[in-house]
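Worked example 3. Consider a protein that binds zinc ion.
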Amino acid sequence: MKPIGCHCFSIRAILLVIFLFSSPIPNALAAPDDTNSIEQRLSPAEAARRFLNAYPDFLSAYDARTEELIGWDGARFPLAAREEINCQKIAITPPCCASSPSFMDSLRIRYRSVSEHWPTGDDPPQAGEDAGRLRPLALWAYMYGAPAARNADGSWRTKKAGKRVELVGGDVEKNLVAVPWKLAGNGAKIRVSRANGVDKQLAAVVAELESINAEAKAQYRHLHGGGKTGVSGFYPRLIPAGDCEISPHTFGVAVDVHWQSGLDYWLASLQRGGYRYHSVMPREIVAIFERHGFIWGGKWRHFDGMHFEYRPELLNMTMPPVGRPGADH
Ligand SMILES: [Zn+2]
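Given these inputs, the predicted complex is written out as structure tokens:
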């Protein structure tokens, strides 16, 4: 875990912030004062417990004296460290350096599961409610693989592909498994990592979805293009909003289940003239994903209604060990 010293800031990120705060509804996405109910102030020991329970194949202990999580090979992850250790330097033009949040940051906002809250246009996620949008990428690179190769200056290697910026030469791909997404009814498959058993959990989601009521199934297929429903998992790239942060799809832990539907994305709603929460995802489907360790992007104020992401620590779940890929067990 070689630290990369970097304090640069993305010009694109600054522009994005300016854009957000100058949108037609200036306070729609700004952090307000009323976030008390969604903010959680976990102790370092409690935060560590969440991560140890969620990722038993990779994390073995917590050192309370130094407030560090300890990996299976002795690697140490300070709970509170931010960009000094985790900053991800990205090779694009202009160069950018997205600071990876700390472990503590990533748990600061509470994820409200389906049983607690179901967001709608009239009752959207609260301002600031983006639980899971902050990700401890140093841990992800350790568990799922490096997101890209490094250039000589230490930056992650990238290439321009149409409107996207893709990451090049990472080693996540060798751990991928293609899981059939039966709900689409068109033979589509989703590639996710087998590290942490993400593939097994997604397969369990698929199996459980077979038992949902016919109405929810029909609703899903109708809303998402019938047999033409697109799905996507692994895709090494930067997040289009800002082109600086590494997308969770890079690590094979994120799933988009109907990418044709632009209605369900916060930025698209702003571009249509103003923030308005909108989702077409059946509630039953989200509940099943949550039961298997995936959070849903439709719960975010910056909503992404097609997006699911493997984050059992945010759901306070204890996951079974499945063995590290390549390890003797
Ligand atoms: Zn996604």
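Take a moment to read the result before moving on. Residues 1-35 have pLDDT under 50 and may be disordered. The chain has nine helices and twelve strands.
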